[in-house]
Amino acid sequence: MQLDDKVVLVTGASAGIGRAIAARAGAAGARVLVHGRDEERTRLVAAEVDGFPLVADLSVGAERARLCDEALEQFGRVDVLVNNAGVGWAGPLTEMTVAQLRAVIEVDLLAALELTHELLPPMVNRGEGAICFVSSIAGRTGVAGEAVYSAAKAGVDMFAESLRAETAGTGVGVSVVVPGAVSTGFFETRGRPYTRSRPRPVPPEDVANAVLTTITRGRAEAWVPGWLRIAPAVRVLAPGAYRQLSTRFGEQVRVSPEPNHTSHEGAS
Fold first, then answer.
1. 161: in domain
2. Global pTM?
3. Mean pLDDT in the chain?
4. What is the per-residue pLDDT across 209-242, written as a single tens digit (0 to 9) for each?
5. 201: pLDDT confidence band, cut at 50, 70 and 90?
6. In the chain, at which end, N or C, are there fewer CB atoms within 10 A of the end residue's CB?
7. Exposed, middle or buried, 239 (CB in 10 Å: 0-12/13-18/19+)?
8. pLDDT at residue 254 greater than cutoff 60
């Protein structure tokens, strides 16, 4: 699918990966619908890419429904949906509040499912469209201190895999981009900075390029960087060794005996 004159909705586009995707889509000739939660930043990015700002809090079901309605009102259709919006939370599960747990699931998983549910049928009716999910290596391997985030991203992966089979032959492409660490503000807002020496964070533009490639070339999946594919392969082929390495070299996070719901309050 070529993006010239196509209507592309990018969620979480007010910063980071989403901002880079919006810029690449705009440069490719698309009419970009820039979604964000922060009104000022969203309008700024929309102006940068000559797009249209759509402000909504994806942790709220009614806001997700409103976003779909407003997106369709702009041009009467959405040709490409990029489910990129996401929030993180870092720390032991026992220190996470139920509200924080729900926020991660609402934004990282339910929003992608619900937006896809609303915007996919018109694409199928037209016989053309594309839906791309920005997932995470955490959803393929699991990460200590990010149990809920990992679960949400694993859900996104399986949803996309199943949906791809359902949409075969309809003209609608379904793709997943799996990034590792990316140089954005994500790690600060999740409550803990990224401290590993490897893998080194990649620029958000690298992820944006992968998103555009999967959409325009009809590819099912892309990894950023590509060598990360080895991690889930080792997990499947040598699970015992993988778990030992993961425990030894992963971020040192352990659950506490008693829940402490004051840590990272409001991080999501």
1. yes
2. 0.85
3. 86
4. 999 999 999 999 999 987 677 766 655 665 665 4
5. confident
6. N
7. exposed
8. no
Tokens describing residue 95: 């220190």
pLDDT (0 to 100) of residue 260 = 46
Three-state SS string over 1-56 comes to CCCCCCEEEECCCCCHHHHHHHHHHHHCCCEEEEEECCHHHHHHHHHHCCCEEEEC
Among candidate residues 52, 133, 149, 242, the one labeled active-site is 149
Identify whether 194 is a catalytic site residue.
no
Answer whether residue 205 is part of any domain.
Answer: yes
Q: Range of 165's domain?
A: 7-249
Q: What is the CATH number of the domain that holds 23?
A: 3.40.50.720
**Count of CB atoms situated within 10 Å of the CB of 238:** 12
pLDDT score, position 225: 80
Indicate whether 169 belongs to any domain: yes
Q: Predicted confidence band at 205 (pLDDT cuts at 50, 70, 90)?
A: very high
Considering the domain boundaries, does residue 266 fall inside one? no
Residue with more model confidence, 198 or 106: 106
